[in-house]
Amino acid sequence: MKTFKTFWIGIPMLFLSTFAFAQTQNPTQPVTQIPATETKAEKQINLTLEGMIGISVGDGIVGINVGGPSLKLKIKDFKIGVGAFPSLIIMDKKAVPRLAVSPIVEYKKWMLITPYYGYDSKDKMLWTFGIGYKFR
Questions:
Q1: N or C: more exposed end of the chain, with fewer CB within 10 A?
Q2: Torsion-angle region of residue 47: left (phi > 0), alpha (psi -120 to 50) or beta?
Q3: What CA–CA distance (Å, rounded) separates 36 from 39?
Q4: Is-contact 104 81, C-beta < 8 A?
Q5: Strands, E, within the chain: which ranges?
Q6: How confident is the model at residue 70, as a pLDDT?
Q7: Residue 18: which residues within 8 A CB-CB, separation 6 or more?
Q8: Are 54 and 129 in contact (CB under 8 A)?
Q9: Four-point Cα dihedral 57, 63, 66, 67, nearest 10
């Protein structure tokens, strides 16, 4: 009989102590809210190989161009800029390495390029027009 009384007396005591613990906040003090902090993802090192290969043609010239350093302005999916292209140009049945400078119009992975290679031995400007593909 003693355990029965202890059981029925213990339940209300447990309830009252829980109720008293829940009411310990002072209602006269304003509740301060802690601002939510944004959690930023940790920056990870991301190493990728990015390049471009293109073919351009001009007046008796075929150029095989690879991507070099460039400066581009991005507007949504388009990029407009200028870049340097280490190239192999084929003219007069000879393959000659040249560095070209070109304006670039890029959309997603495709580029329109107009490489300028300088002058040939006859003081003729060497220009070509072509398309390139950017891989990553």
A1: N
A2: beta
A3: 9
A4: yes
A5: 51-58, 61-66, 70-75, 78-91, 94-107, 110-113, 116-119, 125-127, 129-135
A6: 85
A7: none
A8: no
A9: -50
Element (H, E) at 16: helix 2-22
Measured CA to CA, the distance from residue 73 to residue 91 in angstroms comes to: 33
Rounded-to-integer distance, Cα 81 and Cα 106, Å:
8
Q: Dihedral of CA 98/102/82/107: which sign?
A: negative
For residue 28, give the 3-state DSSP assignment. coil
Rounded Cα–Cα distance for residues 70 and 113 (Å): 12
Tokens 């292209």 — which residue?
85
The tokens describing 51, both together, are 């390049």
pLDDT of residue 114: 94
* Residue whose pair of structure tokens reads 């202890």 in the numeric block: 6
Widest Cα–Cα separation across the chain: 120
65 beta partners: 54, 87
Q: What is the dihedral of CA 53, 58, 60, 63, to 10 degrees?
A: -10
